[in-house]
Amino acid sequence: VLSLSVNVIQGVNNYRLQNEQRTAVTPMAFNAPFAVSQNSADASYLQQMALSFIALRLNVSSETVDASHQALLQYIRPGAQNQMKVMLAEEAKRIKNDNVNSAFFQTSVRVWPQYGRVEIRGVLKT
């Protein structure tokens, strides 16, 4: 009975190690680590990645918009890249033609890790 119990516990632990392994990462310009696994990501990961995407999309000038948008496109799922590429190209053209600089200043961030959702509010200044 004891041997059977130990084997069951070992099996459960092996399954958890195989499917719930977490990796600590520090992204882009942030210095707060976060944890991700094959099945989930913590609130810190979602918040930091969302803020990074906002920066790539909204903190641009006529000189930086192309590089920022190109970096952002790397994170877009392949099925949506063409549509997003057209939208970003139109936006970049307007920014360059009007010689616009923009910056987004966040006022609040809310994260729902169980849904993989982040809400960022703020002010966009141009």
UniProtKB/TrEMBL annotation:
A Pfam family per the record: TraE
Source species, domain of life: Bacteria
InterPro entries referenced in this protein's UniProt entry, alphabetically: Pilus_assembly_TraE (IPR007973)
Name assigned to this protein: Type IV conjugative transfer system protein TraE
